[in-house]
Amino acid sequence: MLANPILNKGTAFTERERDTLGLRGLLPPRVFTIEEQVLRAIANFRRKTDPLDKYIFLSNLQGRNETLFYRLLEEFPEEMIPIIYTPTVGQACLEFGAIYRRPRGIYITIKDKGRISEILGHWPNPDVRMIVVTDGERILGLGDLGAYGMGIPIGKLGLYTSCAGVHPYYCLPITIDVGTNNKKLHDDPMYIGLAQERVRGPEYDELIEEFVTAVQKAYPKVLIQWEDFGNTTAFNILHKYQKRVLSFNDDIQGTASVALAGILGGLRLNGGKLLDQKILFLGAGEAGTGIADLFVEASVQAGMAAEDARKRCWFVDSQGLVVKGRPGKLAEHKLPYAQDHAFVATLAEAVEVLKPTILIGVSGTPKTFTKEIVSRMAAINPQPIIFALSNPTSKAEATAEEVYTWTDGRAIYASGSPFPTFVLNGKTYVPGQGNNVYIFPGVGLGALACESREVTNKMFLIAAQTLAGLVGEDDLAVRRVYPPLSKIREVSAKIAAAVVEECHREGLAQIPRPADIEADVRSRMFKPTYEEFA
Fold first, then answer.
1. Is residue 85 annotated as a catalytic residue, yes or no?
2. pLDDT tens-digit readout, 392-418
């Protein structure tokens, strides 16, 4: 009991439980309530000043007492989420070998081909419902971290439980290790993965195929969330398996949904209309093209032809403006957005020529929204929407303070990682955090609640619209286009209910429609309270 983090209550085991379960003498004599344990835990957490030390503290607590861990997250989400996920999880991944304490999740390597079913059988819980899996090639904006990327599935599943109430018993983090092209890791004495070049091509594809087949056989009710795969790999996997297995890619679809929600919130602030917008993206990978795809879907729903909506999405990548006839071969996912326009080489030129209403950074390259660019956006638009969405904080295209200052407070700003409240000319600005945590937990919970056959793109459009509708007037008053994280469980419940409604509407649900969908969803959400064992 004391060694099982899902069952362990620590000093909260009652007198009767201590006798019945043979724990007498193994614990200090005083019995504490969970409320008292929370007070001790938060005091110890706040005693630490370094974010990575706080991450390690929470990781140790999760490995010891999951109920207390999730109670802490539920009561203090605005303090905890930036630690267990962005931005601190990025540093945790960079140092994952040095801070490694105990195994969590499953590692499947390229050397395990033909044995994946056997390896899944080693996991002690036979009824897994939620898997987050990565191959570590594109961890946040940090690049190829190989097996060090395990911090991402662990963190995402922590958010599924704390933000949407998916029971931790059902959750399984997985890393697929096919090597890493990060030469530094090959020489890192702390590196926990295969110190070899990445395996690609047919051998890689066969491993993923075996993985999907084995997971479906072992866990027929599971949802797979693909996380932080490289651009080409991510699109290929999503398109191949989206209809075959209950799955989605958070970097493509979740990011798109939270960004679209922020745009909708921004339009409430500046009075603009969706169909009048022109978006310029810096970065043309999974996140950028995913946002564009969902913007097109929303525009089609609003009455615009898809071809016309795509013409309102422009991309600048590392080679310049994405246009037809540009030298070199364009990646397949960029082709729908290759415009018939003269080529320009820089973002500043693109802003000047295209005069966008919205500027979105998903490049992973910091400080690329310069004063010149941001000021020009403000000259073109009375209230420009400027989102610097790259993670972690060190990769942000511009800080909140910079954007507000350079636009005299007129910009509508959001970022991928949190920035502090800023005061300019006596007015308070609270930057919105366009974090996928607002989207994927609710979508996943909804898909699981009705045992959906598929996670569709439409569900992410509905999630974005639901999230945007939950932004209150008090949020808009401080120019924040997302609700505060303190309301995250409420947000997830509303999104999950909307997803279940869509599943029943499209005939994807495999269980009967409940009389009250939202009440049914809430009844399924894990609550971090102790059970009585005796």
1. yes
2. 999 999 999 999 999 999 999 999 999
